[in-house]
Amino acid sequence: MIRSATVNDVPEIRAMIRELAEYERAAEQARATEEQLREALFGEHPAACALIAEDDGTGEAVGYALWFPRFSTWTGTRGMHLEDLYVRPRARGAGHGKALLASLAATCRRNGYDRFEWWVLAWNTPTIDFYKSLGVELLEEWKVCRLSGEPLRELAAQAPDVVNPASGA
């Protein structure tokens, strides 16, 4: 079963984020707290949405998908960015990942989103093969850019004042 996450799922979502980070060999980078996730998913201004995959027999959470809307200046339409898709190893091969992706694709169609995009690590061959089996197009010509830490602080320190015409400031 696929269902929308609830605030009660936050501890389990955080646990699966940690499991995903360990699988992706980056456990030290998964620092989000339950409080941060609660605010991001269920706060006054949610930043993201999540789905939970449950085992039909036990009702146990066996996977999740976390996504947020995006916008394309080229198409002039909204789209979806999938931040995380994770199915616990013991539940893989039972269709949970495909069901999560199909549910997200249906959300895209329902909301009129033109694009559904995400990233995958280049070394993650089993996942890449799974995505290819669904007809996913891998955009080899694009590179992900990230600015964080000290370089982010240094560039921000160089920012000119931004005028906001709406506030007169």
Automatic annotation (TrEMBL):
Tagged with keyword Magnesium: no
Keyword Nuclease in record: no
Alphabetical keyword list: Acyltransferase, Coiled coil, Transferase
Domain N-acetyltransferase: 1-157
Family matches, as Pfam families: Acetyltransf_1
GO molecular function per UniProt: N-acetyltransferase activity
Coiled coil: 13-40
Family in the record: Belongs to the acetyltransferase family.
Protein name in the entry: GNAT family N-acetyltransferase
Source organism of this protein record: Streptomyces swartbergensis
